[in-house]
TrEMBL record:
Record-given protein name: GTP pyrophosphokinase
PANTHER family: GTP PYROPHOSPHOKINASE YJBM (PTHR47837), GTP PYROPHOSPHOKINASE YWAC (PTHR47837:SF2)
Coiled-coil residues: none
Organism (species): Rhodococcoides trifolii
Pfam short name (any one): RelA_SpoT
Amino acid sequence: MTAPPDGTLRTLRDEFTRFTMSYQFGMEELLTKINILKEEFTHLHSYSPIEHVGSRIKTPDSITAKAIRKNIPLNFDSLRAQMFDIAGIRITCSFIEDTYKVKDMLAGQHDVRVVEFEDYIANPKPNGYKSLHMIVEVPVFLSDRVQPVFAEIQIRTIAMDFWASLEHKIFYKYDGEVPQSIRDELQDAADVAGRLDVKMEHLHNEVQALDARREN
Ligand code: GTP
Ligand code: MG
């Protein structure tokens, strides 16, 4: 990374620590929000729409590699302004409907600014990839200023997540050059996963309706 003009190694190290800390704080704010939604939803509807939440901060190596790939100048201001996934959160939901609910509940909070939203569930990628992608900006309250930070939130069902993790492994195994026959099978598996999601959601709704009738 480019050192500031008057920079010593120590200044640079401190600045880098402050840089990654702001992402860590922003991510923790979001994780708290997600946890509140999860607990409250469970209380109201007696089931959890969120099965699992994962998070990560990009490593310095991965930040550098992406900056080079995307032609982002290697300085803190440019990275802050142009790299949106230094903080990443992945939410796995039980059902398709819940992915949209969780997205809306997060996007509706007044201190969460949605910068970008991509619906790869309604419009899957050509390989079959499905997920909701949301880039958000949250304010981090530091001792001397408010630092807005970006985070990427991916929301998908367990079946979509199962598919995506296998596809990711296969993609790396073949270094991006996945043979057509495997690609066809992956596409087929994505269809099967999609059908499973619809079936599970239907079953879940049936059971919920039965429960509601029993309570009345
Ligand atoms: P980058 O963020 O630079 O990768 O480019 P982009 O913004 O065009 O990517 P996109 O928003 O489509 O994807 C961001 C992230 O979503 C990736 O880093 C992956 O974690 C995930 N993702 C996107 N497409 C796929 C896919 O086809 N397969 C799998 N397994 N994950 C994907
Ligand atoms: Mg992206």
